[in-house]
Amino acid sequence: MLWYYSGMEEAIERVLVVDSEWVHSLFPKREFIADIRRDFIQSLPDKAFFMDRPDAEKDPSFRQVIPYTLIYQNGRYLTVTRHSTQGESRLHNLMSFGIGGHINPVDGEDKNVLDSGLKRELSEELDTDNPPGLDELEFLGLICSDANDVSKVHLGLVLRWDVESPVEIRETDKMHGEYLTVEEIGDCRDRLENWSRLVYDGFLKQADCPVSHKNV
């Protein structure tokens, strides 16, 4: 994350956002949206800009861009349960199977900003020194939800990284990682945080759900 100081005020994080009206004009549907052409990701940096996170958190006319990556290994997905020692209090003790976070100015301000931010977030949360870029991941769709005040100001880019051997959580003092089958995740549905529940309902539990837009 990149922070700056304004006079004597506390450090302020800046995050990448897009105009909500632009997103809604392209995708009137809400919740999890599949069957989206991959060139949407390629066009997004031209529509995005940075703003102070405290302002972005309160203004639904903008959506903060979050790469949200599922880690898949031999029929199982990496699930993460965040402890109370982790920073995002709204996620404490909830289960998630998406890895990611905000894009900051440290990730650049050109067309590669999403790629750089994705790699940084994966390397921060996972025990890997060689995280993949966008071109190496499967694009599953978008999370564009109005379910609550938090969802209204975020836009999730849902991706999948297929790994040959398990990739583990780096900060084990803050979160617990476990690989589960789709059926096992379904048994824990009530414990899933909102975005993971949307992806589970809209994609994972549909066992034969095709991803024909991967190379479009």
List descriptors.
alpha+beta; ten-stranded mixed beta sheet; 216 residues; Nucleoside Triphosphate Pyrophosphohydrolase
Q: How would you describe this protein?
A:
23% of the residues lie in helices and 28% in strands. A hairpin with a 7-residue loop joins β1 (3-4) and β2. Mean pLDDT is 87; it is low at 1-6 and 208-216. The protein has a single domain (12-204), classed as Nucleoside Triphosphate Pyrophosphohydrolase (Alpha-Beta Complex), CATH 3.90.79.10. It has 216 residues and is of the alpha+beta class. The protein starts with a strand and ends in a 12-residue tail after the last helix.
CATH topology: Nucleoside Triphosphate Pyrophosphohydrolase
Mean pLDDT: 87
Largest β-sheet summary: 10 strands, mixed
Give helix % range: 10-25%
Structural class designation? alpha+beta
CATH superfamily: Nucleoside Triphosphate Pyrophosphohydrolase
What's the CATH class label?
Answer: Alpha Beta
Count every helix, treating DSSP H or I runs of 4 or more residues as helices.
6
Number of domains: 1
Would you report the number of β strands? 10
Write the layout of secondary structure elements.
Layout: E1 3-4, E2 12-19, H1 20-26, E3 31-33, H2 39-47, E4 49-52, H3 53-56, E5 62-73, E6 76-82, E7 95-96, H4 113-125, E8 138-144, E9 154-162, E10 175-180, H5 182-187, H6 194-204
Parallel strand pairs: 5-9
Antiparallel strand pairs: 1-2, 2-4, 2-5, 3-8, 5-6, 6-7, 6-10, 8-9
